[in-house]
Amino acid sequence: MTLRIQDLYTFFVVARAGAMQQAANELRVTPGAISQRIASIEDRYGKRLFSRSRKGVELTKAGQDLWSDIDASFSKIEKANNAHFGRNSEQQIRISATPTFAYSCLVPRLGEFTDKYPKLNITIETDKRLVDLRSEPIDLAIRHGLGDYVGYQSEWLSSPELIVVGSPSLLQRGRPINDAIDCLGYRLLRDTTAICSDWQLWCEARGIDERKALYGPSFEDDYLIVKAAVEGQGLALLSDVYVSEQLKTKQLVKACDAAWPTHFAYYAVALPVTFERPAVKIFVQWLKAIAAEDISSIR
């Protein structure tokens, strides 16, 4: 039988707390996730571990036997963790973001946050999928969408624009761009996750025949498109927040003034209880502040 340490530790925390909600707060998951883990243990071992009461939960005989066997071990592990790492879990924030957002927006400014709040410990993980904040050890996800995520709370951060950018050297040796249609005189870099769609919509919005476009290489990640644009391989249609640093350093410049406001925005997404944590409140406020600064610096 496979050993499920996470489920056993959940049992340990619930037994110590005597309440599902308190255990959920400590483990930073939903009470539903706690119930599922306990049910998983009970199903696997064929024994009831808790009985429910008005005061919370109480250990059954089988639960007391299991508790007596694992209490000392998990207590020792927690003590070792606190001794070696010495961090309060309330001071830790684990964040999930897309690779491009992390590289372009978070990492360049993160030093400012750690200087200002040295006691808060930030961990950033990159993932394109929408992580399950109920069961995975992630506190906060930063996502691009409409902000409507069932079961979660979302905080608006910024609304990016799609802009056409290119390297100064490419634009200097190419034909002048006086209007949007002149962009079709250059190779257009595209995203493999939505082949041509952004450029197609951009052209349609300006009454341009997109079939005349000459497309260059395709890339799976926006960061690779940024890199290709910096190297002068073609024009890119990207969110302005993704290229703010390159615009500041003049590695890229706006090829034309035909910006395209998107209908989507960046949101900080978490469980409602997570947003109540003081450390998370501080971080989200900081995110909103730097998002506003980044937008104002490039528009």
Can you give keywords for this protein?
299 residues; alpha/beta; D-Maltodextrin-Binding Protein, domain 2; five-stranded mixed β-sheet; four-stranded antiparallel β-sheet; 11 helices; 21% strand
The CATH topology of the largest domain is given as: D-Maltodextrin-Binding Protein, domain 2
Overall pLDDT score = 83
The 3D shape can be described as elongated
Helix % is 40-55%
Q: Note the main sheet.
A: 5 strands, mixed
Give an overview in words.
This protein is of the alpha/beta class and 299 residues long. It has three domains: 5-85, Orthogonal Bundle (Arc Repressor Mutant, subunit A), CATH 1.10.10; 89-159 and 264-298, D-Maltodextrin-Binding Protein, domain 2; 161-261, 3-Layer(aba) Sandwich (D-Maltodextrin-Binding Protein, domain 2), CATH 3.40.190.10. Helix content is 44%, strand content 21%. The longest helix is centred in the N-terminal third of the chain and has 25 residues, at 61-85. The radius of gyration is 25 Å and the shape is elongated. The N and C termini lie far apart (59 Å). The model has no long low-confidence stretch (mean pLDDT 83).
What's this, in brief?
The protein is α/β, with parallel strands linked by helices. It has helices at 5-17, 20-27, 31-45, 61-85, 99-116, 168-173, 197-205, 222-230, 244-248, 272-275, 278-298; strands spanning 50-53, 56-59, 92-97, 121-126, 140-145, 153-158, 161-166, 187-191, 214-219, 236-239, 253-254, 260-261, 265-270. Helix 1 packs across helix 2 (20-27).
